[in-house]
Amino acid sequence: MMERARALVAVVDDEESVRKALSRLFAASDVDCAMFASGREFLDSLRERRPSCVILDLHMPGLTGLDVQKELARSKSKVPAIIVTGHDEAGKRAECLAEGAADYLRKPLEATTLLAAIEKAVASSSIV
């Protein structure tokens, strides 16, 4: 029986504390992760390795999470994105989902909610 490949989750957040907290959560949950401090850094990394899912902070300097989501959609990348924000704004959830985000979550993130969203996003993207 073939073992299923482990999911690789990319996290794009300009706050180091958020990256560290998510890194600890994923390590405890047996999920491989890659951390990126900017949207550009993440997009550049796609040439090397494609993650199973990406967690995008909505509000970042330079490219926002929504900018990165739009770039993924434009490039027809099949990486499902979960956009997270600590500053929820009217209409943002609908806009992010309309641009192709798999989910939209508010910070502070609940571990079980985030892990369930990742599992759902990865499962839906792997359906051929």
Describe the structure in your own words:
- It is a single chain.
- With 128 residues, the protein is α/β, with parallel strands linked by helices.
- The chain has one domain (8-125): 3-Layer(aba) Sandwich (Rossmann fold), CATH 3.40.50.2300.
- It is 41% helix and 19% strand.
- It is globular.
TL;DR of this structure?
The chain has 128 residues and is an alpha/beta fold.
Keywords:
128 residues, alpha/beta, Rossmann fold, five-stranded parallel beta sheet, 5 helices
Fraction of residues in H or I helices: 40-55%
Q: Tell me what portion of residues adopts beta-strand conformation.
A: 15-25%
CATH architecture: 3-Layer(aba) Sandwich
Beta strands, count = 5
Low-confidence stretches: none
The CATH top-level class label: Alpha Beta
**What overall form do the CA principal axes indicate?**
globular
Mean pLDDT: 92
Radius of gyration: 14 Å
Main sheet characteristics: 5 strands, parallel
Question: Helix-strand pattern, N to C?
Answer: EHEHEHEHEH
CATH superfamily: Response regulator
